[in-house]
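Subject: complex prediction, re-run

Hi both,

The earlier run crashed halfway through, so I resubmitted it with identical inputs.
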Amino acid sequence: MSTYRIAIVGAGPAGYFAAQALQNSQTDNLNFAIDMIERLPTPWGLVRSGVAPDHPKIKTVAKVFEKIATTEGFRLFANVELGKDVTIDELEEMYDAVVIATGTSKGKKLGIPGEDLPGSLSAADFVPWYNAHPDHANVEVPLDCEAAVVIGAGNVAMDVARMLALEPKELDTTDTAEHALEKLHKSSIRKVHICGRRGPEHAAFTSPELRELPKLEHTDVHIDQHQIAEAIKRAEAEGELPKDLKSNLDAMQVIAESEKKGHERSMYFHFLATPLEIRGKDKVEEVVLAINQVQDGKVIPTNETFTIKCGLVVSAIGYEAVEIPGLPYEKGKIQNIDGKISGRGSYVVGWAKRGPSGVIGTNKSDSTEVMKLLVENLGTPKPPTDLEKKLAERGSIVVTQNQWEKINAHEVSKGEPQGKPRIKLVQRQEMLGIK
Ligand code: NAP
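This time it finished cleanly. Structure:
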């Protein structure tokens, strides 16, 4: 029986699915001891700090993660930071293979004037703010304005827009960060504008997300019927509509045609609108956007612009990986061939491997493929050396699976009397104090 020791860095979906794939590939002769290393004192990655609080069903995948984590041979080392508590070179020396699953947590920049004004944020700061991520608790989110503009036509833009446009009471029974919930209750925002630079036929939203919009109980959602009709015409001129595109356009048409109830809160979709400039004296006051058109399948600007007055701009235009010293990067992700980082004993999975695309489930097939390659490349097992001992010598405070379960139980029990799935702890020290 050969036991191989694998370190997985990053306790998000891609990391857990990599661990699961290794566990599933065990045989009478092949065994894995898996150490999962996570920078935060809490695991689950985007399931904890990315998924919108009003989408609790998506978070039920955490049950799968906990099953993986409580399988024999798995250890959690949370509150351990790569590059600070331990280096990638050390891990490669100690383990038979290292799997990087650190995601892409940096927001892409628009690169337009005014982007750095107070009141202009990236979704990479705003989303973890409302999800109680310890590093984003103090993000300044001005909600004392009537209108907000969200840039991007993807599911993150949609999450951000919904969080801003929902009646906050609807969030009372969710795990929204307490600091965010308090601010959202006092928010003056009543209009949220989502701006996509291309047409409705090019939007990256997925149809389940679009289909829930007409069902919002306290928010009217507006899409220009003419823009959808034109998009359908253009898309049909290209041939038979692919299933997903048809489903998206149908869903947008339903929104466009839905009866508006006259709610105080509303969401407006603007397509073919590229942000040119964010203007304001000391803070965001308005966004200037170019009006585009589609010509021969290409999106090109017209000479016309329009302006939206607002006090908050959130750009949700994609993410890049935060670089780990020593690893090669290209276009915001780790350079790799099918998940193998060339010239090193490391592999990469998830968004750090392929960029920020796909839903949580996409990581399962992706991680499984990379772990197949890892297993094929295994040599002779290395003699065991213990990370636990190394970290103890360095004075690192490790949150083990057992301690995490205590933090988890604490959060869930705090939430129960208020009908919430949990109340998340925000400060690292509070988390570390749960014994
Ligand atoms: P995304 O789906 O790639 O969408 C990014 C959007 O930003 C696109 O509309 C893109 O337009 C636009 N964009 C990029 N650069 C821009 C610029 N300079 N100016 C204006 N617009 C720009 O990314 P995402 O929304 O961050 O989502 C990431 C992944 O997570 C996606 O696969 C998404 O489906 C998934 N996700 C899923 C859920 C869910 O299942 N509920 C929730 C959240 C996220 P172009 O197309 O023109 O480039």
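Residues 110, 151-157, 159, 196-198, 202, 204, 206, 209, 316-318, 356-359 surround NAP (CB under 6 Å).

- K.
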